[in-house]
Specification:
Rossmann fold, seven-stranded parallel beta sheet, alpha/beta, two-stranded parallel sheet
């Protein structure tokens, strides 16, 4: 049997695919290698994955129905799908909302329809985001909280993907699990994410922009903990208990710790051995002041237990950054 991993050249998809390959699984990777950030980083991730005999890669946009259908029709051995391909980034969604609808809504629909064509598919795990909680002020964010007031296009498309999944679970009884990721960081991370932006600027003696004058808190979650949660979810498809209990579950995957942004920056400064030059900025449109994950249901149902504090995780990220950039 085999697992399709969409977004396999992306940050989380790469790590999930590597973990599956390391435990002997056959993995079919899918990615369109778009230029949202430097494709060279995506190619470097793929070069690592291609060292495994069990890895096959297809350059496909998940919103391309014909290409996705052709792939699954030629891959009847696939029994699980992990859908991590997405157009990421809250701020960029203000510039190009169409890209988010194409990737995150149309792509979700296409992947679900592709799963229905797989004779052995027993579970679809897909990525959602903590952004769906919008401007909620109750902390920590719980899965049962209302998520009907998104404040960014990105958040709206991720919530739409969840609603499509709920509908397909009802109509087609396809077991699905949605995972709301909280501020994921770590080695091989995206250049548009805070850890990368700050590290890159500090090591190149450029100032960093600190939004809301640093009065921000995030539930920063290390990539290894996220991967453990994804794989735990993959092995636990929700049961089909009938029309009143659809085979669809949603979980938060976070570190269950809301960290001060200024402390996060200080840890990067320490790991870099340099101080940051800070430029205070106002709040960005579509952004939120604080995130904090309630992970009770993930702990109970998935055995999810994040174990990497940011002190450790940041040091690992900066060490990877220096190695990757030969610094």
């Amino acid at each position: 049997m085999a697992v399709i991993v969409t977004g396999a050249a992306g940050f989380i998809g790469f790590h999930v695919a590597a973990a599956l390959l390391n435990r002997g699984e056959a993995v079919i990777g899918v990615d369109n290698l778009n230029a949202y950030y430097d494709p060279a980083l995506k190619e470097a991730r793929l070069a690592y994955l291609r060292r495994f005999a069990g890895f096959r890669f297809h350059r496909i946009d998940v919103a391309d129905k014909a290409a996705m259908f052709a792939l699954v029709d030629a891959s009847p051995e696939v029994d699980r799908v992990i859908h991590l391909a997405a157009q990421a980034g809250v701020r960029y969604s203000l510039e190009d909302p169409w890209a988010y609808v194409d990737a995150n809504v149309h792509g979700q629909l296409t992947v679900m329809e592709a799963c229905l064509r797989l004779p052995a598919c027993r579970h679809l795990v897909y990525a959602s985001s903590s952004s769906v909680y919008g401007g909620n002020t109750k902390l920590p964010f719980a899965v049962a909280d209302a998520v009907d007031r998104p404040i960014s296009i990105y958040a709206a498309t991720k919530r739409a993907a969840e609603l499509f999944a709920e509908t397909y679970a009802h109509l087609h009884r396809l077991p699905m699990t949605g995972l709301r990721f909280f501020s994921v960081y770590g080695p091989w991370g995206r250049p548009d994410m805070a850890a990368y932006i700050f590290t890159d600027a500090i090591l190149h003696d450029r100032p960093i922009e600190v939004f809301n004058a640093g009065d921000m808190r995030r539930d920063f979650t290390y990539i290894d903990d996220i991967v453990a949660g994804v794989l735990a979810a993959l092995e636990r498809p929700p049961a089909d208990a009938g029309p009143e209990d659809r085979p669809h579950r949603i979980y938060n995957l976070g570190n269950h710790t809301s960290e001060d942004l200024n402390r996060f920056i200080r840890l990067i400064e320490t790991a870099c051995g340099r101080s940051a030059r800070r430029i205070p900025k106002g709040m960005q449109p579509g952004d939120v002041r604080a995130t904090y994950a309630d992970i009770d249901s993930a702990q109970r149902d998935l055995g999810f237990q994040p174990s990497t504090p940011i002190d450790t995780g940041i040091a690992r990220f900066v060490a990877w950054y220096r190695d990757y950039h030969d610094m």
